[in-house]
Design a protein that fits this description.
Blueprint lengths: L2 H18 L3 E4 L4 H6 L11 E5 L4 E6 L13 E6 L5 H9 L4 E4 L5 H9 L7 E4 L1 H9 L3 H22 L10 H14 L4 E9 L20 E10 L2 E2 L2 E7 L4 H19 L7 H14 L11 E3 L6 E5 L12 E4 L2 E4 L3 E4 L2 E4 L6 E2 L8 E3 L1
Parallel strand pairs: 1-5, 3-4, 5-6, 10-18
Antiparallel strand pairs: 1-2, 2-3, 7-8, 8-9, 8-10, 11-12, 13-16, 14-15, 16-17
Helix pairs in contact: 1-5, 8-9
Bound molecules: zinc ion (ZN) (3 copies).
Length: 368
C-alpha cells in the first residue's frame, strides 16, 4: 500500500465529512483505522486515535511504544506519540478544539469517549456515528482492496479444491478435527488469521452456524464446510458441500436447486440493482422449487476488512448496488434433523457485471 492510497482515502473521507456536516472524525481501534492509515492498533487500554479535522491535518495520537510499528505516510497524517505519564485524552481534546459535530468510531472504547466528554464541559457538540462518514467509502472497494479480496478468495479456493480432491480426510474424523485441518490449510495457503471453519455433518448441517464438535463424520453423509480467514487485511468466506457416497435423490434434487439459486443471486448483483434483488433472485428459485420454508437466512453480507459488514443482501435493503460493493451470495436449504446445504461465493460488483472472487467447483462433489 502506497501513501497515495491513504491520501486518496482521507481525501474521500473529508469530502464525505463536508457532505454530512461533520467537523472532526475520531477513529480508534477497529478497521477504519487501518483503512485510513495502514496501521492496525492492538485493542488495548492505551489510547490510539486518528483525529481528522475536516479542514486541517490528520494526526495519529499513539502510545510512544507503539509508534515504531506505524509506517509513516508523509502528507497523509502526522504522528503525535504520547508518553506513559501524559494524558492522551487531553491531547486529543486539544487537537479537536470545539467541534459542532464530531463523528465517533463505532468501536472506539466507551471509556475514551466518556473521558473526552469530560474535557468539553457544557459543550454543544453533537455526536454522530463514524459510519455516516465511512460507510460509503468502506463499501466501495478500491482497486487495491479488490485485489486483496481476490487473493484471499483464491487462497480459500485452494483449500476448497483440496476438500473436493479428497485430500482432507473426513470419514471417521470428528467435525472439530476436520475444522482444525481446514484452519491449518487456510494458514498454509497464506491467510494470517482463520476467522471460522464450520464443519457440519449430516443433521448438524441443518444449523447454519453449527459449531463443529465431537460428532464423528460417517459414510453416506452430506458434509457442509464454510470457512474463511483474513489475508493481508481482507477476508475470504466460502461454503462448499461434499457428499460421502452417492447422495439420495432428495439431496441431489435440492442441490441442483441450490446451485441454480446461487447462480441467480450472483447474476442479480449488478450495478444499480437493489441489494434486496440479490436476495429475491436466489429466494425465488428456491421457493419455486418448493423449498422456500427451508431457506431461513438472508442471502448475503458485505465483506472486506471485516467478515460481515455492509451492504447486506436482504429483503428490505433498497440500497443500490454500486461498483466496488463486495458481498457474499450464499443461499442454503436446511431440513431439521436430516441435512443442510449452502453454496457461497464472494462477489464484487463492477460496471462490467459481477466478478466472482471464488472459482472452486460449484457442484456437489461426491467422495468415496
Ligand atoms: Zn455467517
Ligand atoms: Zn461463509
Ligand atoms: Zn458468508
Amino acid at each position: 500500500m502506497t501513501t497515495g492510497i491513504f491520501l486518496d482515502r482521507l481525501h474521500r473521507a473529508r469530502a464525505s465529512m463536508q457532505q454530512s456536516g461533520v467537523d472532526v472524525l475520531l477513529v480508534s481501534v477497529g478497521s477504519d483505522l487501518p483503512y485510513l492509515t495502514g496501521y492496525e492498533a492492538m485493542p488495548l487500554e492505551r489510547l490510539t486515535m486518528l483525529v481528522v479535522p475536516r479542514d486541517g491535518d490528520a494526526t495519529l495520537v499513539i502510545p510512544r511504544l507503539e509508534a515504531p510499528r506505524v509506517a509513516e505516510q508523509p502528507g497523509a497524517f502526522s504522528l503525535r506519540p504520547w508518553n506513559e505519564t501524559d494524558d492522551p485524552v487531553a491531547i486529543v481534546a486539544s487537537l479537536v478544539g470545539r467541534p459542532e459535530v464530531a463523528a465517533v468510531g463505532d468501536t472506539m472504547w466507551a471509556r475514551f469517549l466518556v473521558e473526552l466528554l469530560g474535557h468539553w464541559p457544557n459543550s454543544t457538540t453533537r455526536y454522530v456515528r463514524s459510519t455516516e462518514v465511512m460507510n460509503e467509502l468502506r463499501m466501495r472497494k478500491d482497486a487495491a482492496e479488490i485485489a486483496a479480496l481476490q487473493a484471499a478468495g483464491a487462497a480459500a479456493d485452494r483449500v476448497a479444491a483440496q476438500l473436493h480432491a479428497g485430500d482432507i480426510p473426513l470419514v471417521g474424523r470428528t467435525e472439530a478435527e476436520v475444522s482444525a485441518d481446514i484452519s491449518a490449510r487456510l494458514l498454509a495457503e497464506g491467510h494470517d488469521v482463520v476467522n471460522f471453519a464450520i464443519v457440519a455433518a449430516g443433521e448438524n448441517a441443518a444449523s447454519p452456524h453449527h459449531h463443529p464438535g465431537s460428532r464423528v463424520i460417517r459414510d453416506g453423509e452430506l458434509v457442509l464446510c464454510d470457512f474463511g480467514g483474513t489475508m493481508a487485511g481482507y477476508c475470504s468466506d466460502i461454503t462448499r458441500c461434499v457428499s460421502l457416497g452417492a447422495p439420495p435423490a432428495e439431496v441431489a434434487e435440492a442441490y441442483a436447486v441450490l446451485h441454480e439459486a446461487q447462480a441467480a443471486g450472483v447474476a442479480a448483483g449488478v450495478v444499480g440493482a437493489a441489494c434486496q434483488d440479490v436476495d429475491r433472485a436466489s429466494r425465488t428459485v428456491i421457493a419455486d422449487a418448493g423449498w422456500g420454508e427451508y431457506f431461513i437466512h438472508r442471502t448475503g453480507h458485505g465483506i472486506g476488512m471485516e467478515a460481515h459488514e455492509d451492504p447486506y443482501m436482504v429483503e428490505g435493503n433498497t440500497l443500490p448496488i454500486a461498483a466496488g460493493h463486495a458481498f457474499s451470495v450464499e443461499p442454503g436449504i436446511y431440513v431439521d434433523g436430516k441435512w443442510g446445504m449452502r453454496l457461497e461465493d464472494i462477489v464484487v460488483a463492477s460496471d462490467a457485471g459481477p466478478i466472482s472472487m471464488n472459482h472452486a467447483d460449484h457442484s456437489l462433489v461426491v467422495l468415496g
